[in-house]
Amino acid sequence: MIRLTVLYNLPPETDEEEFLAWRLGEHQESNMSMPGVIASSFYRIYGTWTGDPPPYRFMTTVDWPDRESFGRGFFDPHVQAKLRDDVQRIRDAVFLISEELASGSVSESRE
């Protein structure tokens, strides 16, 4: 599995309620409609293990089954054009692309 993780903040002048309405509606639908996407989640970051303020306020993850489908979906010219517009709503964005090497669940580890 390939996962795109985006960590970000909002510009100070942003109405957070308005942003959340867009992010949980239109933008979530847009993420899920990218070619090959199998899952997309959105998170509000509320802390760090050290207790320090987190450097980012929000996180989005988007998953594809493999590198080929990720490349076709994420780098599609229409997706990239929309992304250029969408990133205008956020600031300090970090885009991480990772490949899953292992996974598990609590139920699997207790069997």
Automatic annotation (TrEMBL):
<protein>
    <submittedName>
        <fullName>Uncharacterized protein</fullName>
    </submittedName>
</protein>
<dbReference type="InterPro" id="IPR011008">
    <property type="entry name" value="Dimeric_a/b-barrel"/>
</dbReference>
